[in-house]
Amino acid sequence: MAPSAVVTVLSIILFVSSPVIPIPASFAEGILVLSTTASPDGGSKVPLETNDMKLNLAVNQLAILHLLRKGASGNKCEGMTGMGRGDLEEVQRLREELASLLDTQCPLRDSVAEVRDHQEAVSHNQQKLENYVKDINASNNNLNGTLSQVRITVSEMSSNLLKIQEDIKRLQEQIAMKEQDTEKNNSTAQLHDDMGATNLWSPGRLFRHEGQEFYLNTDQKKTWKDAREWCQERGGDLAQPNGGWDLFRQQLLQLLPPAPPSGHQGVWLGASDTQQEGHWVWLSGTPIPHNFPWGRGQPDSNGRTSNCLEIVHEKDVRREYNDYMCSDPRYFVCQL
Questions:
Q1: Residues linked to residue 282 through DSSP beta bridges, in sequence order
Q2: Where do the coiled-coil regions begin and end (predicted)?
Q3: CB 215 within 8 A of CB 204
Q4: N or C: which end of the chain has fewer CB within 10 A?
Q5: Closest of 235, 236, 203, 237 to residue 217, by C-alpha
């Protein structure tokens, strides 16, 4: 703060806080002599020691206000031509206070400049931070795009992997079927070799079903009783498949010669109800289960005369399990 401003403020305070001050006629003289002051011992007046004209002016003005205030408060004024020791000390004190205020002005300006520098640095850092945030957002967008592409690639790879697994499973099934066919062919060939060596089952057709070996005789037709004896003479018996009866029937029908244009063609198997009407059992004594795949409306017994089990084969009509008269000649299947 400039000295004149300080003096102005102090002057206002002094005038406001003081009563109305009568201005003496010798006021002009007092202004002129304020540039000097009495010596401490009351001798001749000496100039105030200062090189700052503005500070001298401020001190002079404060001295005038001080003297006027004394006069207004009832103290005698010895004239405006000089100051006493107390006045000199008061002026000196005011001068020192003003000098102290002036001394603090430069550090204050420096502090203000430092604050401004800090504000500029903060603004610069804030701009850099905003740029960093923009860069981070851009990087996040790129990362999200890359992540989406990775997810799409993983999804495609998963789909391809499922297809590969399905292909492998299909190939394994094909290999298993080929192995079964190879094993079946080898077993059939071995069975043919064995039968050829003994010449017991030839001519005829051999096949396997669920681990059992069967021989289809299509060379001659026999009654159910004669067919069983023929099988027994060769160490077997009429066929008694353990299960999978639909598949057994399909295998057998593929081996049979074509059905005649008209008439009935069938193949004897090893089951009957000759011991008890309606109670069908295999030759081993095992009852035929209730879920056995009989043909529609079978067994019908046909007046208690149909007591033996056959697979009937009529051209484009019936290919099913049926009960028939045991005395009628049929092809037959032996179980080895």
A1: 271
A2: 154-181
A3: yes
A4: N
A5: 203
- Mean pLDDT for the stretch of residues 131-146: 87
Task: Output the six-digit token pair for 96.
Answer: 């020192």
In the block, residue with structure tokens 């004897």: 268
Domains of the chain: 3-112 (no CATH), 200-335 (3.10.100.10)
Would you state the pLDDT for residue 297?
A: 86
Q: How many CB atoms lie within 10 A of CB 332?
A: 27
Dihedral sign for Cα 334, 217, 254, 213, please. Answer: positive
For residue 324, the SS3 value is strand
Structure confidence by residue, pLDDT tens digits, 172-230: 888 888 887 777 666 555 555 554 444 555 555 788 899 899 999 988 899 999 999 99
- Consecutive H or E run containing 319: strand 319-325
Q: What is the DSSP letter of 294?
A: B
Take residue 83 and report the two structure tokens written for it: 């100051």
What does the DSSP assignment read for 114-131?
Answer: HHHHHHHHHHHHHHHHHH
Sign of CA dihedral 82, 88, 94, 99: positive
Q: How far is CA 333 from CA 34, 165, 267, in A?
A: 155, 43, 7
User: Mean of the pLDDT values across residues 156-174?
Assistant: 88
Token pair of 45 as six digits: 């007046």
